[in-house]
Specification:
The complex is a heterodimer.
Chain A: E1 5-7, E2 10-14, E3 19-24, E4 29-37, E5 43-50, E6 55-58, E7 61-66, E8 71-76, E9 85-93, E10 101-103, E11 107-112
Parallel strand pairs in A: 2-11
Antiparallel strand pairs in A: 1-3, 3-8, 4-5, 4-9, 6-7, 7-8, 9-10, 9-11
Chain B: E1 5-7, E2 10-13, E3 19-24, E4 31-37, E5 43-50, E6 53-56, E7 65-68, E8 75-79, E9 88-95, E10 105-106, E11 110-114
Parallel strand pairs in B: 2-11
Antiparallel strand pairs in B: 1-3, 3-8, 4-5, 4-9, 5-6, 7-8, 9-10, 9-11
The chains are: A mainly beta, B mainly beta.
Chain lengths: 113, 115
């Protein structure tokens, strides 16, 4: 399957530190997206990176994509307690069903004040 | 813009009953997607609909599950004769069109509990 897999499964850091989460996938993609989910809530889209892009920034977020290794990383700089959430990567096929996102199981990030 | 609206937020059904989950996409969005999230799991694609059309239902269980997106009104995910294994969070997402250019906007989900 093309399932994305996040690593680590759980990450606990202190406020102000940086948090790095990784995602690996198996097949060719059109784009890769990162989402945040607060406990018991819906998903919030954070950032989308296309297969021909290598790096993208949005505020305190930095996403990299290495298509040769089929991996991506999400870096959150200067973390805050409000960043505590689960983070999911999702991949969109490069083929016909590119609307269909395949999600990993997520990384649970805890930022301690 | 109220975003993607799902209701109810929580739904409890006894085994054998029917569950109806509703999703109103963002204004201007004509594409709706339903995903299911089991405990400790990522989201799994169920179905993709446009107005009055099911585009891809490859993620839907063959039995008991159906979805519609009528010309007027919200999209409905219907689960007949629910079983305990149907307990999950069901999320709806919408997009204005080509998902290649946009990330999805998700609703807050409906948490179905079958007792």
């Amino acid at each position: 399957s093309q399932q994305g897999e996040e690593d680590p499964q759980a990450l606990s850091i202190q406020e102000g530190e940086n948090a790095t989460m990784n995602c690996s996938y198996k097949t060719s993609i059109n784009n890769l997206q990162w989402y945040r989910q607060n406990s018991g809530r819906g998903l919030v889209h954070l950032i989308l990176i296309r297969s021909n892009e290598r790096e993208k920034h949005s505020g305190r977020l930095r996403v990299t994509l290495d298509t040769s290794k089929k991996s991506s990383s999400l870096l959150i700089t200067a973390s805050r307690a409000a960043d505590t959430a689960s983070y999911f990567c999702a991949t969109a096929f490069s083929g016909g069903s590119n609307y269909k996102l395949t999600f990993g199981k997520g990384t649970l990030l805890t930022v301690n004040p | 813009n109220a975003g993607v609206m799902q209701n109810p937020r929580h739904l409890v059904r006894r085994r054998g009953q029917e569950a109806r989950l509703r999703c109103s996409p963002m204004k201007g969005h004509s594409h709706v997607y339903w995903y299911r999230q089991l405990p400790e799991e990522g989201l799994k694609f169920m179905v993709y609909l446009q107005k009055e059309n099911i585009i891809d239902e490859s993620g839907m269980p063959k039995e008991r599950f159906s979805a519609e997106f009528p010309k007027e009104g919200p999209s409905i995910l219907r689960i007949q004769q629910v079983v305990r294994g149907d307990s999950a969070a069901y999320f709806c997402a919408s997009s204005p069109g080509d998902s290649l250019a946009y990330g999805y906007t998700f609703g807050s989900g409906t948490r179905l509990t079958v007792v």
